[in-house]
Amino acid sequence: MKNIVILISGGGSNMAAIVNTAKRDNWAGRFGARVAAVISNKAEAKGLLFAAEHGIPTAVVSHKSFASREEFDDALAEVIDRYEQPGEPALLVLAGFMRILTPGFVNRYTGRFLNIHPSLLPAFPGLHTHQRALDAGCKVAGVTVHQVTAELDHGPILAQAVVPVLPGDTAEALAARVLTQEHLIYPRAIAELLQKQ
Ligand code: GRF
Q: What's the CA-to-centroid distance between 74 and ligand 1, angstroms?
């Protein structure tokens, strides 16, 4: 069984979309894959409740418990690697995980490490993407699923979806419109990757 490990920091709606799609589309039967664990750097992340309610093992690795990024990343990797199967490396999925990871950590999972970013990369990497898109006068916005590389919000693009920017949009309204697309393209991009493996 191929294990998918999802990292979250908050609401976890993308994680929930992945879990729901995996169940609905029988990823276990079709790809031999399952969401094996949800890990958060924040104990209060609401997504942990959803995961637990769906029988998925959860863990918290708080960045506040470590003196350096390297020590946090090592502790995180130690938990992730519990879900590795011999000869079947886990797929690592960032879903609203709000920590910058060290190159050492990223290199460990290269090629099996995905992120979703709520902009049409390479435009607007980093934070406050929706407000920045509005401030720039963009007529469209969107979301990108990409392979994670050491450079923040870069790496080969696997999928994108475009939404219109509407007159009078606020960052919140635009974020909500983008999020509905996130919930479609992230599970789809993961399924495509699993199909190829
Ligand atoms: C999403 O917009 C995602 O693209 C970004 O953080 C947000 C997380 O939302 N990286 P959720 O926790 O999946 O609801």
A: 24
Residue range 25-36, pLDDT digits in tens = 999 999 999 999
pLDDT of residue 89: 84
Query: Which domain CATH number covers 135?
Result: 3.40.50.170
Q: How far is the CA of 86 from the centre of ligand 1 (A)?
A: 31
CB-count exposure of residue 121 (10 Å: 0-12, 13-18, 19+): buried
pLDDT of residue 103: 96
183 is a catalytic site residue: no
**Which strand (E) or helix (H) includes residue 51?**
helix 47-53
Cβ of 89 below 6 Å from ligand 1 = no
pTM of the complete model: 0.97
- For residue 116, which atom of ligand 1 is closest to its CA? 4
- 125 in ligand 1 pocket by Cβ < 6 Å? no
Q: What is the rounded distance in angstroms from the CA atom of residue 102 to the CA atom of residue 40? A: 17
Q: Is residue 161 a contact partner of residue 181, using CB atoms and an 8 Å limit? A: yes
Q: Residue 88 — pLDDT band, cuts 50, 70, 90?
A: confident
Into how many domains does the chain fold? Answer: 1
- Residue 62 belongs to domain spanning: 2-196
Q: What is the pLDDT, as a whole number, of residue 4?
A: 97
Q: Whose CA is nearest to atom 8 of ligand 1?
A: 96
